[in-house]
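Journal club prep — side note

Before the paper discussion, L.F. wants everyone to see what a predicted structure for a comparable chain looks like in token form. Sequence:
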Amino acid sequence: MMYEDYNKNKHGCGAKRPTRSLETKGGIIKYDVVKFCECYGFVVALNEFGSSKKDILQKALELYKKQTFEACGIHLHQLLAQGKRSAQVGKHV
């Protein structure tokens, strides 16, 4: 379904994309949308007096970016630590 819709509505821009590629990209987008909606819901729940819709969106975006950056940092730290352990194991073998 997604494959047919994408390739039917791409208006001649770019090459056809395989189904798996579209499913993967769709999954990434869905994940990010859900994370942003969670941040937005959190900011709305704070119910700060005098906050405009623009303020709420800006705070939600800042929170989303912060969470995304921290998650990437934690993941990177884990990968680096794993690489160090692998390098140390390699030295002792």
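L.F.'s comment for the group: The first helix runs from residue 2 to 9. Keep this in mind when we get to the figures.
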